[in-house]
Amino acid sequence: MTQPTPHPQHTALSLAASGVPVLPLRRGKVPFGNCTACADNTCGGRPNMKTPGPCRCPAPCHAWAAATTEPAVIVSPPWAAAWRRAVCVGYHPGGADLTVVDLDDAEAIAWARATLPATRTVPTTRGEHWIYRGAMTSRNKVRSGVDIKSTMAYARWLGYGTGAMAALPDAVHALAVKEPSPAPSAPQTLPGPLRGGQGECPHRTPVFLERGIAMAEQRITEASSAVHATVYRTFLAVLSRHGRCGCLTDTHVTRLFTAAQAKGESPRHCTDAWTNARTGLGL
Question: For the segment 92-107, what is each residue's pLDDT rounded down to a tens digit?
Fold first, then answer.
């Protein structure tokens, strides 16, 4: 015999008891709009839903920022009215120290299976949610059919899924890193040394340059997360200090690229990051 589907409010109370912040979702699987007092953030809280803010509205306002684990709030009159109209339960993954990799289609699922560590998986209408232990910055459209929902975002509750939950890997952190778009004519091969620099050379001895390259290699090697961003920022730092005097050689660039590729970066990403750093500095 088929078990009846629990009422959204009952599901919400169960999740809240386990420490998952919840909120009601209306038709269209979206949060309820702010009440009159909070419309357009006139209450002064949660500007653009980026911070919890000082607002203490008793209604389920401000989308993800309203998510709660308090049973008294969930059954309060303003929330009870929302639950009667709710079609499903939403939750704030970041508030539960979770990250959801939302895979919208079969192609995205195939990519995840080939790229990401296995973790708890929840089927969705069109694809799957891969849920990792640990919170991070949310970002939509990190690649075709893939969104990341964690802090300052909500996800639809679709059940507990299957599989053991894995720790949030660097590969997912890296997806949320924003970098400048590659220059239209960015080369895809190892760039040559910078020559013809017009600045005064600060390298009083070869040791000065050697120490800078070694420190840059170490920074990349020791990156435990956000490797994409670390590589780009390290290239930027090296070029800002050593890029205008013409002292960097192919050997120096190769060392930096080798360190980045040892952390899983592709040759193309290394070249794009180097080119973007040079462009940003006007080199």
Answer: 999 999 999 999 999 9
